[in-house]
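Section: Multi-chain targets

For targets with more than one molecule, the full set of components is provided together so that the structure can be written out for the assembly as a whole rather than chain by chain. Components appear in the order listed by the source. The example entry contains two components.
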Amino acid sequence: MNDTQLVRMLALIIAQSAPLMLAVTGETITERGGVINLSLDGSMLIAAMGGFVVAYKIDLLLQAAGISGNFFPLMAGFSTAALIGMLVALLIAWGSIRLKQDQVAIGFVLTLLLADVANFLGQDYTRLPGPRVKHLPIPLLSEIPILGPMFFNHDLLIYLTFAIVGIAWFWMFRTQPGLRMRGVGERPESAFARGIGVNRVRYLYTALGGALVGISGAAYSLDIKLGWSDNHILGIGWIALAIVIFGGWRPIRGALGTILYGITKALAQKLQTTFPQVPVVLFNSLQWLLMLGVLLLVGSSGIRRLIDYAPARLQQPLAQALRVAPPQALGTAFVDD
Amino acid sequence: MKRDNLRIIWPAVPVLLALVVITILLFVVGADPITTYSAFWTGSFATAERTFSTLAFWVPLLLCATGLLVTFTAGLWNIGVEGQMIMGAVGASWVALKVANALPNIPGLVIIPLELIIAFLAGALWAGLAAILKTRGGVHEIFGGVALNSLAIIATNYLISGPWQPPEGGTFRGTQPFPAHTLLPLHGDTLFSPLSLVLALLVLLVVMLTLKGTFWGLKLKALGKNLSSAFMMGISSEREAIIAMMLCGGLAGLAGAVRVLSWFDSLRQSISGGIGFLAILIVLLSGMRPLFTLVIALLFSALLTGGSIVQLRTQLHSSISGIIQGLLVLFMLLFGDYRKVIRKRRVVKPAPGGDA
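Its structure, encoded as tokens over all components, is:
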């Protein structure tokens, strides 16, 4: 493989990681506020279906009216998907905050239910060609060797994804509202004592995160894995939830995690064609073994032991950088009376 | 007095709500709700043949749900029940294919119990893996379970298309049929094994009594309710968690064995078909009360078998059964406790300026 091939492959991996990146960022935001949206595997499916169907129908309507162009159908599709994701997330937050029920239970039921609903409502729209997001290289920037094709030779959705990851990081760690958000996820009692409306903040970030999860579903059906079919992207939601943990509830590390995941998958495909004598089963299991492996690494004392091998001066900063701690109040309801 | 009445009538509210939503959904896709609901009845209980199909699905659902009663009591989310069931099926298939082949003289009376034991062990070990990952590796059992489920499916596909493929070549559909004496005795020419139902009911009874009447049951409850105070009482959370998970896995393994030894006659690609996940919904809906679990499992099994007739008659997507089941559980989870639905409103009213 020569250099251009490698760059082209990396660019493809980055592009294909974008939807997952959106889901991971969305869920990171939601969980930082203290709410677990476990329904990702279902909500991404139904958002992918809803987004595709709306975009497809509006595209047909506009074509019949003689208006060409993808802009309006796509906007409608992505908005629908965002709305679906937001409503699902809000349902979980409401069930927890208002009805005092278990977030994990509601989320799990929604995971199964929404996948079924997506297959049910989408049954007449399988394997149809729909609108897709247009390729849009950024002039000048995409001409930069290596970095250009990797980061600036994609479409608008992918650029927006990069921007959202950056904004999420900046918001969380560099602004006052972001600090409040983290406070609500870590110590809701203290945040409440400081006059923060804990549950209002939680609704807000759950909705925001849910909208991103919805958009990520449509990012598959309208951009990366075009169209709709039964269980179109089944399993991806669970991968996203695992990467949120791997990323230590930080947007940039989560985004890197999605790229790492993409690289591993591409590598496995490459190896599979190179070594056809190795059973395919090994490559199929790889992503799940990887998921267990990284969760073990961050969950057990594995990372700490690895850091012990690093040079003494690096140990402290490494431990700081690799720290993985969930928001302390994650998944618990806050009662203010 | 009035409150008591409300408590008894209330569960009808989420059920009706679910029915309303389902009916709306049917209108949306242009299906006739009456035809659909009656097809569910025809498909599940109308004839003796369909009734036995319903019973045949009831058994694995019951076995898995019984196991989940244990893990839920201990506060564990054993999502891996699906994979544990598959591994149980693989274990039973190994005995039926390999052991019965190597020692053809062993009678069914020995080989069938052996199949069930190996299935139990296989399921228990797969669950033990998820438990160890949790207690030693810090991997939450939900994620461990999801990964192990997928790995179990991949392993089955590998066995079917590789080492255990039928002599005429791998088809990806299943192994060759097991010898007749290794299969569970069936009722007439149905696919229902009465013996397996007796076993499942017995297991439920034992688990129910264990959870209710023994110290171990109490320990599990303490674990599930409050981890830190259980720790203060000197209950080893690790040991109990592992035992609870392995017990559940073992029962799921039995469910897998029942699937391959009665419903199918060979190891198939999708021996579970979501039964494990469905069992989780059943236990959630029953609020972890064993007798409710029994009845709801029968209802869900009827929805499952009825679904195929619904699909035939109305051309609806097969996911309709799952939607009905999911909506029932969702609304029961959200609105099942009237005190949480109604009381809260009164608290909020006097303080409109407060944080709600």
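Chain A touches chain B through 47 residues (CB under 8 Å).
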